[in-house]
Amino acid sequence: MNIPQSTRVAIIGAGPSGLLLGQLLHRAGIDNVIIERQTGEYVLGRIRAGVIEQTTADALERAGVATRMHREGLLHDGYELCIDGQRHRIDLARLTGGKHVTVYGQTEITRDLMEARATEGLPTVYEAQGVSIHDFGSAHPEVRFTKDGVQHTLACDFIAGCDGFHGVCRASVPAGAHRTFEKIYPFGWLGVLADVPPVSDELIYVKSPRGFALCSMRSHTRSRYYLQCSLDNKVEQWSDEEFWAELRRRLDPAAAESLVTGASIEKSIAPLRSFVTEPMRFGRLFLAGDAAHIVPPTGAKGLNLAASDVSYLAEALDAWYNTHSEEGLARYSERALARIWKAERFSWWFTSLMHNFPENAGFGQKMQEAELDYLLHSEPAQATMAENYVGLPM
Ligand code: RFL
Ligand code: PHB
To answer: So which domain of life are we looking at (predicted)?
Structure first.
């Protein structure tokens, strides 16, 4: 591939944010180039999100990449909360007037987006080294990087920072130009992916005296399970046998009994964090997705926020190029942050409700118990939870 020297929008990062933005821009007739530091295989190897809101499914539809999701994705109109060995169903469809979520892995969405991009011949530079961004305070920003030992400069009108939490874009913003808000949780999630049938047709979020667990899935034959673990745990400390034994201890007796176990095909530990940077626009640099915010995975909101960010951004750039309106770009940060803070609240609340907190003895624990008791016996409380879980409107 010839590496272009100029484009309209330079997108940094080929995760779901960058790839979806690229596809939405292409559909609006806006040239873009994606610069990614890893290989495509590496990006596909990261096992992450599994639950897709309707607004994300709609964005994939607009991007022209929803065919396989419609065919293979699993529609879920409820999930269960298992509290100290007893299961309670949250009936999403009934509580939200017919809404549902789709269980379809981030890996599959990423693969669909990569394939669409390759089919349409859109430029993506993988294994770009030393990526740096310049002059985004001016009308002529630039991206510089090295590929196969050769230095390249990409001139552009705008830079989209879709390069995740550890990327270069947010780090390039002068310290005084933004504010960050952060909460670190005192535990992580140990995740296992295995080719075994899921323990139940629906997701089960588990709170037990031994800590949180989650039973999720990717298909009728592939399961994804998580355990709350200590931050000083290493993946190597957890054999498959130990993982399954600990999961069984946290489940209710019926689920523990019917759990099918097998060899893990992926095992990893993720720390839990809430993080937001404000604003998300710096001249001609726009941050989107994990580059601007992180949620703990309990609410299943990270990928969904990435999709709403890039939907707002694509709409704003479409208006700029095709109707010469600057309003969408001017309002991008404010619009995106309004949705982000509500998802931050929900993810923090659901995380606080379901996990064991070392510091939570006494009053904190009583508050958690009262909150759970209220939720399980109040229809309006369940409706609020369901409304947030299926996703607030964009
Ligand atoms: P990504 O996916 O991190 O992609 C960023 C890309 O940028 C590249 N990059 C660079 N490229 C060029 N130059 C540089 N200097 C670069 N630095 C980095 C990286 O290589 C990478 O390819 O961010 P993006 O696109 O914003 O997507 C965000 C989502 O990945 C994330 O929010 C979700 O995975 C979060 N998440 C979930 N979200 C949901 O909506 N539903 C879920 O069920 C859900 N479950 C999860 C999750 C995240 C998890 N982990 C491990 C954090 C479950 C887990 C366990
Ligand atoms: C997942 O399947 O990976 C998953 C599902 C729901 C969550 C988080 C992760 O809340």
So the answer is: Bacteria
